[in-house]
Amino acid sequence: AMLDPDSGLPLTIARIVQRLKGSSLHSQLERQARVSLHKPEIKLESLKEDIKDFLKTSGWEKKLQNAVYSELNVFPSPCHPAAPPEHMKEPLAYMRKAQVGCYQFYCMYLLILLKKEELLSCAFQRPVSEQKELLNKWNEMGTDEPDLSLFRPVYAPKDFLEVLMNLRNPNYENGEQPSFRNHLGLIQVPLKVKDIPELKEDFSELGLNIGQLGIDDSAQVPPEFFENEHVRVGQKVLAEQDSAAAQQYVRQGCPTALRADLWALILNISNQPEDILYYEQLKSNVIQHDLLVDSLIYKDVKLTASNDDYYFVFEDYLYQVLLCFSRDTSVLEHFTYSSATPPKSYIRGKLGMEEYAVFYPPNVNYNSFILSVAPLCFLYHEPSKLYQIFREMYVRFFFRLHSISSHPSGIVSLCLLFETLLQTHLPQLFYHLREIGAQPLRISFKWMVRAFSGYLATDQLLLLWDRILGYNSLEILAVLAAAVFAFRAVNLMEVTSLAAAE
Q1: Residues of 324-336 as b/e, b for ≥16 C-beta within 10 angstroms?
Q2: C-alpha distances out from residue 21 to 26, 38, 69, 222, 388, Å
Q3: Per-domain boundaries in the chain
Q4: CA distance 177 to 173
Q5: Name one Pfam family in it (predicted).
Q6: pTM, whole model, 2 decimals?
């Protein structure tokens, strides 16, 4: 009652309550309440005072707090109630238009991979014999050798960068605001990005006078003392099962032994029987239906596993997670507040019949997705939990790296933040690289679009992703990319070509 109705926050809370009512968490709570209160037919809504006492004594109060906190981390900032619905997804009209164009480009790529007579269908029912074969080798798909010679990755990072470079705001002449004319980078979109003072305030826990796990040359206390104390605090956070406290804690890095449990707590993943059943249903869908993107997944997993010694041992996990992900229509929920309408296909011969429609989540760059799943394999060895963790990381963070938006954690803003930091604080280096045809973003883009997966050693990468979870932001990727250039500035001032800079 005390909330400002014009802030849009009450509407956000109402949407979160509605989402939780339809979740497995709600059914688990209702089932346990019926047992504990000996009221087998009762509904939660009618329990009133009884449910309050039950929540406090059973521990469910903390679980619900974590669930609401988790949803608040995913939902966008509240819009004004009078704003059109599409503004919740993206407030800038030219960005919304670019989102649609990007998905049309993706669909075109999918279609040209098919034979001409198959252009209208991207989904096929597998024969029964093939279904049995796939089921038998589900845990050994890395041994399969399908003919993938005609397929290539749908979207390389350089292709996506070209799309972003052509993005313009038609409301300004030449796509620029007057205050934006001094920006000499590749991204010519007048978005507001943070400067160093704002970043220092937002990322204050990364200050040099604060201990960081994995870095022991800047702390004010002996590193072994900091690590021991940090582990003790982490164990206490886990015992309390407080999602908000866990998110604050990981800003200084996670101890290796606690990381899997802390990330699951932050992402509100508990791997209940309902969750395991949902994963099995997705697996069944993979076995029954063959999608066009399956071949792209097979090819990219093979390439990743063969080129990276870190990840080849997880090849089977990569297939399982990504094939299931391509069928997961629950991922589509985030389209209601994040991006353009996703593409869909139809079972062959059923064009236009909605009951035979197969939706495609926004999997623009499967190679980037593979590199997003692979590091998680070091933490989670149960396929259903690994899948849930990846899906939650996707809907919170990774989708922003593969879609066009004005969000501060979106890839457009990250590119602009990177270029602005470099141009402002290392102008000589920026101008030198620009003059020799080695625009810095052409080098750093692939780092950011893949969240540095494949470019950092896994232990370093997980320490970086600790901070992404801790701050609920991807902006740290742009800061790190600029820092790498600062670290190599002396060497880079000597290069004379893009290849040498690389």
Answers
A1: bbbbbeebbebbe
A2: 6, 22, 15, 49, 19
A3: 7-75, 101-150+271-397, 158-210+403-501
A4: 8
A5: RabGAP-TBC
A6: 0.80
